[in-house]
Amino acid sequence: MAANFNTAEYRRSDGPSFHGAITAWDAGASGQGTTIAVVDSGIDNANPEFSGRIASASKDVAGNRGLINAADDHGTQVSLVAAAARNGSGVMGIAWNANILMLRADTQGTCSASEGCTFSDENITKGIDAAIVGGARVINLSLGGDPANAGLRAAVGRAVAAGVVVVVSAGNEGESTDPAIDPKNPDPFAVSLLEAGGGNVLIVGSVNGSGTVSPFSNRAGNSATSVIMAQGEEVCCVYENGQIKTTTTADGSFVTVVNGTSFSAPQVSGAVALLAQAFPNLTAKQIVSLLLSTARDAGAAGTDATYGRGILDIARAFSPQGSTGLAGTQVAVSLDGLTGTSSGAMGDALSGASLGTVMLDGYSRAYGLNLAAGLRVGQARLPLHEALAGGGSPVAVDASGLSLAFTVDSRFGAVPLRLAPGEGRQARVLASSVVTRIDRSLDLALGWKVSADSLTARLQQRREPQFLVAGIASGVFTRPETGMAARYRLGGLGPTVSAERSVLVRSDPLRERRGDRMTQIGFTLDGGQGEAFDWRLGFGLMREERTVLGARFADALGGGGAMTAMVSPGLGWRFGKGWALGATGSLGFTRIDSGAVATGGSRLVSSSWSVDLSREGVLTAGDRLALRVSQPLRVERGGLELNLPVAWDYATQTATFARVPLSLAPKGRELDAELAWATVLWGGDASASIFFRREPGHFAGAPDDGGFAVRWSRGF
Q1: CB pairs under 8 A, 24+ apart, for 287-295?
Q2: pLDDT greater than 50 at residue 424
């Protein structure tokens, strides 16, 4: 059960909500197991906000006074901001479960309630060295003053070598009028540590709860590329006897808040602890880079002299940054892109799909990812619209041994076949074919934008009923480019070979990047042509370059093509006066290409079928009434077998892989029925259809689809 962090304790705490800490907490980061070193004036170790989490290595590096400083609570306040406990009372810190390594470094006898404490470079140096020995991931220095001496700079260098992040306050001289002080730049102490520690050092200025720079805060100035801002103004609250201190006057009860870059720095130190726990692979420089590069922009666009890189944004720092890819592979993944689009044959197969895996971002941080979230159901099939949308007009010419056929786009106007110069621009040939007899036994058909199936049907002289809706049996939407078929008459048999090159016509963002082409070859044997009973048996191979039965998958899911072997039987029986019964079907076996993720076990079985009953001469001598019941192409079983990373080991930097299946078989099954009538009328072709579709698109529970259409067309 997910924890509820939006509590009264959370809402009292200034910093966690403003900086988006809940995102990290929801991801399981609390700072547990990490140590924040605070070089400061001591800590109230009796405060329940730190119970059990003050590191045993905590000590007074400037003497033997113990950790409690009765004259100053600065170190306690800094520690509360960074790591106050999530215990249902008071406030909670950014890294509420981190350990605090308190290294008391105030010079003996210098602390006072009004002036605070002073710190020598020698004592701060001792504190930094103790933090390194104590295993701290981050050292918080809510201190300021003159530039650090050589010894302190060297200590910062040792911290850098040990992989520790150093967080230092920018200073509180923002409103100073002293000519010796430059409020437009960070405190000299902070600048000197930045120079000593380079990419491991963060300087932190202060903003209020609205994100406006605090008047007292030093600005980013010349150190802007290494400065980040955090809330340091009106930060709740001062404690007394282990509870938030409440002052009661005649005007009411009040709590005491604190101000200063001293309290913006521990917001960032807490964020460092969260990142260090959640992503143990990160180096100190990477953590600093992450926090700076993901800061929320403020002030002038980009890095500026007031806000530096911007305001601490923990939520964004925890989100993937840079290039992303599947863990343990070279396969790139996009968080906001499609990972696949199904085809009509797959229907609702992708609905509710889940593909849990692990990806790495540009910092080699592991994230859980559901690849199925980027899967989309393909464009819905609208067969009636598809049948009626074409503006083509057929033109045919027959001569002895030769047949020519054209389909011309009539939207460009009716243009005679004998075109004068310039008239060719007015007409566009959509498709053409030529059928010729090579010798007494061999017929040849060639087509441009005509399918091989259509050419084969012409050579076999099949006269089948035409349907508007139930006639579209394929779930793979292609546009033929070139095709051919050759049929040899061998007694009562007719072997036919065919080939086709085509391109997918369904458009989606994945397909637009490449031309998705396919090649088909086939062999059909038919018999009984012209007799009461005829039959045919076809075998084919279809090679898809980048698709799987018309579906398109990104490289993260294989991204390759497929080979499909098909068996297509057909029967016809003419009986009675003008009656005919026909049936056809196809059974496909698809092998999906293996790749970096898809395995050789990815296979599909698909089918389609139709049964027709027709009669000629129902109302007039030339009409035909036909009934068809059919099932469009449907995946019956199978899918993608993926070898995906399912876990990541930060210690060994290796991924654990597992076989993860993705079924492409839909739950629904579309069944179509259509009653169609056609005749020659008024010098043109007239037709009428009534149709019904159950579970259209192979979507289980989808509303039934039905309708009727009447059409009349005339060629030119």
Answers
A1: 287/165, 288/165, 288/199, 288/200, 288/201, 288/202, 288/226, 289/199, 290/317, 290/321, 290/363, 291/202, 291/228, 291/317, 292/202, 292/225, 292/226, 292/228, 293/321, 294/319, 294/321, 295/228, 295/229
A2: no
Q: How far apart are CA 604 and CA 544, in angstroms?
A: 14
First to last CA, the chain: 72
- Taking the C-alpha atoms of residue 169 and residue 217, their distance in angstroms, rounded to an integer, is 9
Two structure tokens written together for 484: 């051919």
Query: 8-317, superfamily in CATH?
Result: Peptidase S8/S53 domain (3.40.50.200)
- pTM of the entire predicted model: 0.80
Strand partners, 521: 499, 541
pLDDT digits (tens, 9 = 90+) for 624-671: 999 999 999 999 999 999 999 999 999 999 999 999 999 999 999 999
Residue 429 has pLDDT above 60, yes or no: no
DSSP type of residue 6: -
Residue 275: which residues within 8 A CB-CB, separation 6 or more?
24, 29, 282, 287, 290, 291, 317, 318
Tokens representing 140 are: 């918080």
> What would the pLDDT profile of 228-280 be if each residue is shown by its tens digit?
999 999 999 999 999 999 998 888 888 999 999 999 999 999 999 999 999 99
Domain ranges in the chain are 8-317, 383-667
Question: Would you state the structure tokens that stand for residue 631, as one six-digit string?
Answer: 């099932």
Summarised one tens digit per residue, pLDDT across range 469-513 is 776 555 566 778 899 999 998 888 999 999 999 887 654 444 444
Listing from the earlier edge strand, what are the strands of the sheet with 201-207?
A: 59-60, 99-104, 35-40, 138-141, 165-169, 201-207, 227-231
Q: Which two structure tokens, joined as six digits, stand for 673?
A: 């029925």
CA separation for the pair 159, 166 (Å, rounded): 8
Query: Per this entry, what is the length of the chain?
Result: 716
For residue 21, what are its two tokens? 């800490």
Res 368: pLDDT = 92
Cα–Cα distance between 688 and 686 in angstroms, integer? 7
Residue 143 · residue 189 · CB < 8 Å: yes
